Amino acid sequence: PHGGTAQWLAEAKQALLFTAVRPDVVMERGEGMYLWDTEGKRYLDFIGGWAVTCLGHSPAVIREALDRQAATLVNASPSFYNKPMIELAKRLTQLSGFDKAFFASTGAEANEGAIKLARKHGALNLGGAYEIVTTVNSFHGRTLATMSATGKSSWEALFAPKVPGFKHVPLNDAESLLAAVDERTCAIMLEPVQGEGGVHAADAGYLHTVRKLCDERGLMLIFDEVQTGLGRTGTMFAFEHDGIRPDVMTLGKGIGGGFPLSAMLTTSRFNLFEPGEQGGTYIGQPLAMAVGNAVVREIVERKLHEHAKEMGDYITRGLESLANAYGLSRIRGKGLLLAFDLPAPRGPELVAACMEAGLLINSPSPSTIRLMPPLIVSRSQADDMLALLSGAMDRLRA
Ligand code: PMP
C-alpha cells in the first residue's frame, strides 16, 4: 500500500502555496508516539505536532468522541448553546479557577480575543489606554495583531504597517518593564515559558513584579499558555509553578489533542464584551467541544501533568548524561517542554540526521533543539530518543 511519494511531493510543490520548508516526506498515519510516512517508514515523534498531540496520535478517546458527536450534532450555529460547549466551559473553568471561557479554533484566535478584551478594558476602565506590553522573543501567532504582539526581530520589517499598540521588553527584566508601562498601557502579555523563542521560563520574582504592577495600575495580565497549558510543563497550567494568576489565560494546541481548538479564560471582572464584539462561525463548534472534553478529561484522569513532570526529569537526566560527550549546554525547560543548545549552529542538520534515523525533533533556532513529545511518552521511548539522538550526533561529527 505504500509508495507513490515522488508523485505526492511533485503535486504538493505544484499546488501548495509556499509557506514552509518541509522535508521530502508525506506523513500518512499516526499511532501513539509514532508517525508513518507514505514509504511506510516509522518516526518516533518528539515534536508532537508542535506540543499539540498530547495524548499521542489517533487516541481512542478522540476517535470515539468525534464518532459520537458527529452522529449527534456536527454543527448547529454559534448563535445557539450546545451541550459539549457548556460542558467544556464548566470543565475548564473548574479546572483552572477562572470564571468564564470563550472558545475558538487556533491559538492566534484565542490571543486575538485576549488582545481585544485588553483594549476594551483600556477603553472602559483606563481612560482609553490601548497599549499592550509583550516580551522580546515571544510568540503569539501569525494573524496581523498577534504577529504585532510577537516579539520576533526577524518579523519587524514584515507586512507593514503593523497593528499599532504593542511594545516589547526583554523577559525577566523588571526595570525595562517598569520603564515601558505608562498611561497608555492597558495590559501586559507574556508566555510563562517562551516556547518558540527557545524555551525560556519567566522567573518567579519577575512574575511577582508583573502581577503587582498590574494590580497597582489596574492593568490586565494575560498569560499565553497556548504552548504551556494542560499538563505540558508538569503542572496543569504553567502559572501554577509560581502561583501567579493572570487575569486572562489563553489555551490552544494540547487542548484539542490535534483537533483545532483554543480557548480564552478570564474572570467575571473582565466579562466585558457586548453581543457580536467577539465571535466567529466555529466558536463552540460541537465536534471541537466534544474533543476538548475528551482530551481534558483524559489528561485529568490519567494525571498526565504528573507524568509529564516525571518524564521531563527523566529526559533531562538523560540529556545531562550526554552533555559532556556532545558539548550540549543550557539544558532547560519544564515538564515535557525541553530544550538544549548545541556547540555549533547545526540544528537543522541534526534535525535532518535524526529524521533519517526515524526521530522527529525541532530546532527553533540554529543552535537550539527543542523537545515536546506527547505527554504519554514512556521511559523506553525516551531511551530510544536519547539513543537515536546521540547516534545522529555521532554521524554529524564523523
Ligand atoms: N501562542 C503560543 C505561545 C504559541 O506557541 C503558538 C503556536 N506556536 C501560538 C500562540 C499560535 O497558535 P496557532 O498556531 O494555533 O495560531
TrEMBL record:
Pathway involvement of the protein, from the record: Amino-acid biosynthesis; L-arginine biosynthesis; N(2)-acetyl-L-ornithine from L-glutamate: step 4/4
One of the protein's GO biological processes: L-arginine biosynthetic process
InterPro entries hit by this protein: AcOrn/SuccOrn_fam, Aminotrans_3, Aminotrans_3_PPA_site, Class-III_PLP-dep_AT, PyrdxlP-dep_Trfase, PyrdxlP-dep_Trfase_major, PyrdxlP-dep_Trfase_small
Cofactor stoichiometry and binding remark: Binds 1 pyridoxal phosphate per subunit.
Gene Ontology MF, one: pyridoxal phosphate binding
Pfam family, one: Aminotran_3
GO cellular component, one term: cytoplasm
N6-(pyridoxal phosphate)lysine PTM sites in chain numbering: K253
Chain positions recorded as pyridoxal 5'-phosphate binding sites: G107, A108, F139, D224, E225, V226, Q227, T281
Catalytically driven reaction(s): N(2)-acetyl-L-ornithine + 2-oxoglutarate = N-acetyl-L-glutamate 5-semialdehyde + L-glutamate
Highest taxon listed in the record's lineage: Bacteria
EC number: 2.6.1.11
CDD domains: OAT_like (cd00610)
Keywords assigned by UniProt, alphabetized: Amino-acid biosynthesis, Aminotransferase, Arginine biosynthesis, Cytoplasm, Pyridoxal phosphate, Transferase
Cofactors, names only: pyridoxal 5'-phosphate
HAMAP family: ArgD_aminotrans_3
Note: May also have succinyldiaminopimelate aminotransferase activity, thus carrying out the corresponding step in lysine biosynthesis.
Assembly and interaction partners: Homodimer.
Family: Belongs to the class-III pyridoxal-phosphate-dependent aminotransferase family. ArgD subfamily.
Name of the protein this chain belongs to: Acetylornithine aminotransferase
UniProt source species: Paenibacillus ginsengarvi
Taxonomic lineage from the root: Bacteria, Bacillati, Bacillota, Bacilli, Bacillales
